[in-house]
Fold:
Amino acid sequence: MSAGSSFGRTIFQGFVIIVAVMLAFGANTFITEQAQKKAELDSLELVLRDLGDSVNELKEFSAYSAGAFDAALVAYGELSGRAPYDKNAVRTALLRVDRNTLQLPMAAYKDMLYSGDLTVVRDRYLRDSIGRFYESVEHRQSVIENNNRVHIDGQLIPALFERGLILPHFAGDTGQDATNMANGAINSQLGAGFAHRSDPIWNFPVDSREWRTLRSTLLAAAQSYAVAENFANDMIMEAQRLEDAIVIYLNER
Structure:
């Protein structure tokens, strides 16, 4: 074998090796890209699922907050007027004044955030929009919970029940299905002939400390409910905009 043919064979073998490496690299790149596309698709579909559930929860939360806001002001208005007082209207209103916790589903976003899969969303604007939305959700949920803790748990509920101004008669629509079911079970057990005592608040004069305290706590509660309703309505619109953006992005892929 001549030196020239040996050199040519070496060149050819080297060329084959280079081509094989390039093909392997290309195949590996293709597989990686496909895996990233699948991870992006799966992640965004899970975010869409959570957003849909969030919108439904927010609509219910907004409706409850609006009802509680109206109820707090009905009770405040009745207790701020002149006798005779509509005791049934006050009781019905106060049944609707309670805390309502908001905790939206964030599992898909948290999983993307902690696993690093958020970076597989190739559109930077969409990726940032997802992050901003959930950061805003966490902030608003924190504000709502703080208002619940201060104005509802810390002021209104103690004024109503811990100080014994209102007795829990378990009657009427509370605005929450689970509470209504529980109250129905209590009333069923007590029996139709059971008569609850009158609420102690009516034993105090209208200018008493008890009435002033209840009126002020009802106003603070109404403010909290108004904030909660506004937050919920804002989040509904933002969630729906984000849903639309994700659907458009996926349809373009």
